[in-house]
What we know:
Distance between the termini: 7 Å
Order of helices and strands: EHEHHEHHEHHEHHEHEH
Number of strands: 7
Largest sheet: 4 strands, parallel
Radius of gyration: 17 Å
Amino acid sequence: MNHPVLGVLGGVGPLATAYFMELVIKKTPARTDQDNIPMVVYNDPQIPDRTAYILDHTKPNPRPEMANVAHWLQLAGAEYIAIPCNTAHYFYEDINSQVSIPVLNIMDLTAGAVAGRIGTGGKVGLMATDGTIESGVFQACFERRGLETIVPDSADRKTVMSIIYDCVKANKPYDPQAFLAVADRLYASGCGAVVVGCTELSVVYQDLADKPGYLIDSLDVLAQACVDYYEQHRGE
């Protein structure tokens, strides 16, 4: 029986990669070790910061290294690839062009999940890095499904960036209430759902004891899509 190998382009960031692997394992309908999904993980934290480059093209470009990792994953036996970083999907086409295997798109998958939840014509809040927001890539995915994107105001964007860079990426404690306060304000503004659109924020979300029903976590969506792909293609 074929057991499609999942390739993980990781390290962007490292903790989000570990949480992603855990999610995939927990979502897999396994009764034994052997029922789980084989993975090849390249956890490369030396990939330059994605937001820094998107906001300032004089900064180191992460594109070549991410494309190299994707190519390496295929050579190592991966049969499909996941990238547990939303901002990295600014470079999706470049990464995808380096391989001949499917590269699952976290933004497109999440937009589909939102549309399935709230239907077309609604508003969706987006909590993400400044790089993701300024690139407009996530907004374009929502727009294709008839959804209007609402982003946090400038003060809340600073809060979000601080949680991501000063806390999660820095391996320091974070304040879940600060995260929830931003999410609550977006929801109160008329959004039918609020997307956790950064995988460092997904770390915060996954640690919440009580998860508000209006939140949709992109990392959770990607992990489920990886499990679904495996279940659909195993045995082929």
